[in-house]
């Protein structure tokens, strides 16, 4: 089925949402819900389809060409198609790297536009933000070096002289973009939307890991921003087990990993250990159990 469905997608235009939406979703789940052997073949099939990749290029570009909806929570058919496009491309980036699959057609994206889609949200629906962040995580994990993707739009030579060395080390990111993105991610966490919180924390984790590889001083500086501490207190719901929230545990694990002692103190660590000792671990949600496990391993 991958052959006829991917060929059908390649013959469509971005405005053919009724046909493209289920088709792209089928391709996405074909990649994820199959055996590793079949997965490798599925990736090869999709990446060999030049018309499909050209279609995906056009779909992604619609993200910053169309006007935002009047209701940010409303997911229009056009936005739903954008979500499917971003998620499929993120998966293709991941699996192309994993299997070193041959690429017949590259995708070209302006990094500034991608970052601005998150930084200047303009009433974008939650699911679209989550999808774009999934893509951003994929390119950060690969250090912007995927053979499937060509990044354009960032020239470190145009940056102010005082930050030129840092910008060169973080290329293709610039320091100003990093801080703007971090602030935007912090603001998104305050919404306390479960799906959004999971995506934001995962994106923040990947961003700091990327920075640490590129420039340890910058990574530690970002991880130790005082605003992170206010963010943690905002996330506490005031309940009896306020620390045992997946996003709080993952954030604290991140700060522990990068030794941000001004963000998380021994007192908070002790409180988490106390709450974990008093909790019925068998009744904790899977996401909380996993986050608690990672936190304890980091401690």
From TrEMBL:
Q: Which organism is it from?
A: Pelecanoides urinatrix (Common diving petrel)
Against InterPro entries, the record matches this protein to: Immune_Signaling-Apoptosis_Reg (IPR052133)
Q: What is this protein called?
A: MEI1 protein
- Gene Ontology process terms (BP): meiosis I
- Entry superkingdom: Eukaryota
Q: PANTHER family from the xrefs? A: BCL2 INTERACTING MEDIATOR OF CELL DEATH (PTHR12044), MEIOTIC DOUBLE-STRANDED BREAK FORMATION PROTEIN 1 (PTHR12044:SF14)
